[in-house]
Every structure is written in structure tokens, then in C-alpha cells.
Amino acid sequence: MLEQQVSNWQGRTVNYYRCLRLLGQGGMGEVWLAEDQRDQRQVALKLLPGVLASEEGQRHLFKREARIAASLNHPSILAVYDFGETFINEDEVVCYLTMPCVTGGTLRDRIYATGGLSPAEGLRYLRQAAQAIDYLHSQHVLHRDIKPANMLLDGEQLLLSDFGIARLLNSDTHRSRTHAGAGTPEYMAPEQIRSKAEAASDRYSLGVIAYQIFVGSLPFKDAQPFEIMLKQVKDQPPLPHLLNPKLSPQVESVLLKALAKQPAERYESCNAFVDALEQALQGQQVLLASETVMTRPQPVRDVTDIITAPQPAVLSLADPASSPPQEPATLTMAPMRLGSNQTLTHNSAMTSEQKTLVDQFLSTNKFAGKLGRRTLLIGGVATALVIAGGSTAAITLLDRKTILQPQPPGPQQFTPGSPLIRLTAHKDNVENAVWDPSGRYLATAGKDTHVMLWDIGPILQKNPTSLQIKDEPTRKWKFTEDIQGNQLHWTSDGHNIIVSGVSLGEFTLVNPFSNTGQQQNFSDSSFNPDNLFPPLLECTVSQPHANMLAAIVFTQTEPAQVSLWQPNKPKTPAVRLSYTSPDTQSKQKPFLITIAWSCDGTLLAGQLSSQEIVIWNAKTRAVQTKITLPPIKGSGSINVLKIALAWSPTNPHLLAAFNIDAVSIIDVQQSKVLYQLTTDEAGALSSPPKDELEPGTVWYPHVVSISWSPNGRYITASYARSTRVHVWDLQAKQNKIDKEGRRLQHYLIPPANTPSVHGSSILDVNWSPDGRYLATSSYDFTTIIWKVDAK
Predict the structure, then answer these.
(1) Tens digit of pLDDT for each residue in 189-215?
(2) Annotated catalytic sites, by residue?
């Protein structure tokens, strides 16, 4: 099992080095503060992901790359003291390097901590970097990942780090496990994106850094890294004077030459570039990044970003507060965009030129990592980021037994809710709040990349009469990417938490009840590991009673496919379900957005981007029926946050489905929509300021989350821009109807005439298994437990 590196090195000795403290971990391995027991000095010990002992070629490649790194001798290059390997079991080897433990942080830290650099400081660091890069090239070595995060600071001295390692981890042996590639999209040269890296590629990356320093922004930025790479290849960077009007034409000319698309048109060396930049700056009073608006930094992508954090606060991937804030991650799809700013669009098609470029990239490029969270370009090319890496302190083994007394499904006497518990540990949007089957535990996850487990049963058993604040979860796990809506679920037996959408081509089961928080990755071994874009496995849900796992499999060629997995076979799905749209005139195939099992586990429903609902029979594996939702009025691009789908817990043929501003109640036996639920609440119907909307899009009120009470009587939903839960009583004898014949909500939680409890929109709402409580999570970084049963 090589999917997860051994990380419990605390106090262990690796040859001569005793591990003292974990400094950071990521797709490129782990970095430990270690003591060299030969001369009693402290070093930074980098442990690469493990390889099989039998993989002699990979071990030889490591030694060759490490030997080259160790042979380099330059004042602006981080030295490699030593390298070697250690067996962690009889057939697995971990390779390591030791380096000086530099405590001054990185140039990336410096830029964003100060808001910008002075001309003299910027030129000083660029000059040192240029000298180091030119020295590498004189030794016939390419770096391939020049960026501020790989430039360490020791006082005023800059030290270039991590050459060769990115290329090593991009080899066939490591790529299938770590997906760590060579290069970072924001700094990659056009020819490097086409897998034709040369010395001029490193010079281009230095040009990007200079542009960032003197203009105050990266030349190409986007929520979608693959789109950044397309811009690197096809687009000219914004003219520097448009972003910084005080830059002279001479400085602009130098920066643009450094970023020329053709390698031959750039400067012949890094030093020549810095010389030209220094000459252009002479006599000019330059407006720097500190006087302009700096772009927010990109998320920490690998361990090199944190290897030398400033003391005494050591940056750690387990501490999101010490990392720069992340940009909202967006999944762009056609005809829908999903993510923090999802878009429903009806006329977005990829040009033939874009298709040619994408095909060329896919056919030649070995880049398999450092992409953004999840992306689908217009026209349907999917990408995904890095591995998930979880860590948590060891705790006492939890008791899975519920301490809540079992009751008939409720609520027995519905009440519009009073808040009992507020959970406050998350540092960003909480997009998921899901109960375990016992009702004792709640799992939450969201934008801060943490999954948290909360033991709330003891608090509820005491029947609190005032709001309780809980700011420490029972356990937590750190992943490399945010866990978006619909990506967190429990297995039906309550033994594991399912985490989807954070890793290339896999989903993860986390056992919260083991002492180590054991994780198991599921990935289809039948897919080609050299494929740049392994299939996305999204929205994994557990079959009731049988415990079969179903995951959306998204590929460019088969966007409407589901794989079914047995829990004890993580490498091979048991069967695949698929759907082909009968609309042969459509330019783009509809794709699955979310899936859900019926309460008896006999049917699996999937909602497609075409606003169709497909129902598969779990026994025959065939499509049983298809339902098309009522069309919405209007046209154009519509911003939405999340798509929701929920089966009745008491009727295996009744389904509630997202239909923009309404919930459609569907009888799957009759293959028709029975009626629709909607709202007239002012918050849900309000629009955001126009400057918050993406160009070319309009706002439309829409449902974000749907949940059915355990007794099947009530449906709750949250709406974008609303801080209240909307509740419909399906057994009500009288219903208020809007002008389109849809039923309006019967209750709001909290009621309309009382203050909101959440400070921002509610992103998820779910009933407890006994029906007595609701859990709501929000943009305000909190989760609230509400009592909704008066008995």
C-alpha cells in the first residue's frame, strides 16, 4: 500500500537524523526539523513519497538527481547536505535529502506580508535569483519550477531551492501515487506547458516574478489553472502600464520581452534581463505593489511553500490560519458551472482553435499536478488537483454507540426551531454538515480544507436551554483542497466518512473511530496512470442496507457515468452505470451533477446538467426512467451555488430535486413531477450587487440544499442569499400558491419576524436521524444545531 506515506516519524531516526518536529507535508512529501546526530546540528529533512524496493530505476533516478543537486555550489542556491534512503518495511523505501534549516520564510511570504517590495529590494532579490538560475544553466541543469515559493530568504540572502525534485516526482513511478508535476501554471512558459522545457523557460518564470513585483499582479490569473495555462500559451499579458500607470514605457518593454511567447525572443540570460530592467528603472519613481492592490496569493500547493516558515510560528498544512487565504474554487462546466460561483449557461462552446490547443496539450504534456481544485473548460476538459493528505492528533478511540435514546422518526411536534449549539472551528465557508446514522456525531467540511468530527450527542442529551458554543472538534483531518457541497457523506453503516472531489481520480474513506483516523483511497486501477486528467470521482454516496458506494465518474468522453464500489475492493469498481442523452443535436453531452440512493437502496437517481433526472435500477443496472424538470422562465447565464437531490426517507419512489428557485417533487413510478415548492421570503429573492456577478451572467434566486424529515412529512431547503431555513409541510391541508401554481413555504427558521442567527447564507441543511434537530452550515464559517421538535 503506497497510497499514503508513513507520517508518524516523530522521534524516529532516519540514518543519522532524528525527527524532531513536522514542518509540513503535501504532494511532494514531508519536511521535518531533524537533528544530525553526528555533529548535533539541526537540519531540514525532506522525506519523499515511498516507492517499492523493487523499483530500482526510480531509486537510481533519485540518487542521480540528488547527486546533481548536492554538487551545485552557489551562494544563492540552497545546499543539499546529504541524501539517501531508508526502508519503512521490507518492500517499501523512502528517499530523503537534508538541507539547511532556513527560518526567514520565502520570497512569496515576503511579497504578501509587506504588500509589495521597494525597487531596490525587488531588484536585489531578482539579481540573486538571476545569478542562481544562470549558474544552473551553466551546469546544464533546468529548474522547471521557478516561483517565489521556491526562493528562501536568509536575511537579505535569497536561496533558490527544489530543483530536480519536481522532475523526479513527475516520473512514472511517483506520478501514479502523488500526481505531483513539474511546474506551477502561473509561472510556466508556453513551451513548458507543451512539455518542451528549456533554459528560456526558467527565464520566462523569472520574468513572471518581476512582473508580479513591479506591476502588483500576476500576468495571468484565473480560478481555473488549466485556463491559466491556455492564457500562457495563447494570450498576451496585460500591458503593465494599464495596471500600474506610473511604470515607464522602458520598464514595460523589458517586462514584455521577458514574457515573449517564443523562447528566442526573450533575453539570452537572466542576468541580461535584470541588467535591462535595472537600466530601465534608473531615474524613474516607480509605483510599486505596496501602492496598488495586490492579488491574493494562490493556495499552498506543496511542501516547498512551507519548508522554511518564519520562526517561531512554523507554517503547517495542518494550520490553515497560517496559510494565505484561498481564492474561491470554481468548477466551470458547459452548460453549467459548479463551485463557489457556479454558472448555468446555454451557449458556451469551445472554439476550434481552443480544441486544437487542448488536444495538443493532452497528447504531449506529462504535467499531472499543481492544477487547481477542479476545472472543466468550456467544451468539456476536466482537471483536478493533488492528493488528499490528512493528519490529526491521536485521541482516545471513540465509541460509535449512540447515547441518544431511539425514538420513532420525527419530528413528533414540529416547531420553527431554536438554536442549541454553534460550532465555530472552521476558518472559511462550511459547505457540508452531515449526521452519522446514530445521530450522535456530525461531520462538517468546507472551504478551509478540513473535515471535522463533532461529538454533539452528550450536549443534546442534556437538553440545553441556551445556545452552547463549541469551538474544538473531536477530530479533524486536513486535505489539500476545499470540500465543496455534496462531497461529504457517511457510509450507511456509520463506520466511515466519505470525502470526494479533493484528489485526482479517487475518493477517500476516513475511519473516525480508529486511533489513527485511518484513511482508504478508492481509485480505478484500470485507467491509464499516465493520463493527464484521470476521471473525477465525485459525490460518492453509500447505498442503504447494502453499503455499496456510488460515485460520479466524470470524463470528457463519458460525462454521465457512475461507478459502483464494494467497500473492500478499493481498486476495482464492481460495475459502471451510464446514460446517453437522446438529444443527438446537442453540441455537448449532458453530465451528472449529483446522485442519491432511494431509501430502500433499490434505485439510484442522478441529476444532469440538461435538467433531466435519470433513475437507474440497482439490481438490473439499467436506466429505469428519465424525467425532465419543468423549464424555467428566462435565458442566459445564471449564477448558482450548488445542486441538491433528496429521496423521501419513507417512500422509495418519491424524489425531491433542485429546479433553480423551486424544489420539484417527483413520482418516479409515474415518471412525472407532482408539484413544486418555492418561496416568497425576501432574503431568498434578493439579488447581489452587480459588481459581484461574473460578466455576462444574471442572478436568479435558487435552492442550495434540500433535506427530508425522517418521517417524510417535511422538506427543508436553503436558498442562496438567505439566512433562514425554508420548511414545507407536505401534509398541510392548506397551501399558499404563487402565480405559477407552486406551493410557498409554511415556516421559516428562524421566523421572519425574529433576528437571523447565521450571519450569512446557509449552504447546507440536514435533519438528524430522529427528526428532532436540524444542522445548518453557512458562509459565516459556523454550523448551528437547531431543535425543531417540541416534544
Answers:
(1) 999 888 788 999 999 999 999 999 999
(2) 145
